[in-house]
Amino acid sequence: MRLIREPLVQFTVLGAALFLVWAVASDLFAVDESRRIVMDEAEIEFLADGWQRQWQRLPTTDELQGLVDARVREEVLYREAQAMGLDVNDLVVRRRMVQKMDLLSQDLALLVDPTDQELRAFFAERPDDYTVPPRISFSHVYFNVDRRGAAVFEDAERVLAQLRSTTPQPERAPDLGDRFMLAYDYRLQAPAEVQRSFGSGFAEELLGLENGWQGPIGSGYGVHLVNITERVESRVPAYEEVRDRLVNDFNRVRRDRANEALYEGLSEGYTIEIDETAIEARALAR
Fold first, then answer.
1. What torsion, rounded to 10 degrees, do the Cα atoms 117, 120, 122, 123 define?
2. H or E element: which one contains 114?
3. Exposed, middle or buried, 127 (CB in 10 Å: 0-12/13-18/19+)?
4. What pLDDT digit, counting tens, does each position of 160-193 carry?
């Protein structure tokens, strides 16, 4: 009993009791951070800025309150969905998370703008990607196979001889043929444009012809005589002409490489087992 009356013992016991009370109270009144949602000034500013960018004005008090309420509702439902495991084995969520990992590596890859030296080297490695295609101007006379039958080529040759013997030769003569559903005259067309209008065979043959009245050549529509009046040869453009394209293409390649490097680095931390037999069996089953 004398021991209990000692001041030091009493102080120690009192301290232990106070610590016990504090610990119990802390457990009772502690805030579970996973259940705490804070809409601070930075978050509210973010919502207000987003509204202003979309509507070109600041939100009213009621509008801003609505944004905050919607954000809180979204956060509550998101956390509850996570707690219920709704994000597990969800293909849409899975793909979105993979996409965000790709975007993360891309953002890191594009922190520094490419230099002119890098862009010029990139250009020199792939000049064909930026070559300006040849262009050709021509007029044509159309001969309808359904209307003329087996005589269509003979008719075309006869008109060709007539055109070549005329002095000066006419630049266009649609009235010497049949009615055509598209245009008769084409100005500085690239091969792809000619192909869209007349087909690949016609475009390829046209580009191989000399200037003046030539033919006959066939298309999906029938037979044509063509008068090639102007030709611009293909060329590799100057660096300054395609610099903007080079920046976009360079960054695209850099993003792709960053994504691949990220995957390669991360995949090294995994043991990957693939049942090759199952793949072969599935392929054979087809």
1. 180
2. none
3. exposed
4. 999 999 999 999 999 999 999 999 999 999 999 9
Quick: pLDDT tens for 100-154: 887 777 777 777 889 999 999 999 999 999 999 999 999 999 999 999 999 999 9
Q: Convert 189-221 to b/e letters by CB count within 10 Å (16 or more is b).
A: bbbeebbeebeeebbebbeebeeebbbbbbbeb
Question: Whole-model pTM?
Answer: 0.58
Name every residue whose Cβ is closer than 8 Å to that of residue 101 and which is 6 or more positions away in sequence. 262
- 3-class SS at 86? coil
In the chain, the N- to C-terminal Cα span, in Å, equals 92
- Can you tell me the distance from the alpha carbon of 39 to that of 43, in angstroms, rounded to the nearest whole number? 6
CA 96 from chain centre, in angstroms, equals 16
- Tell me how far apart the alpha carbons of residues 35 and 275 are, in angstroms, rounded to a whole number: 44
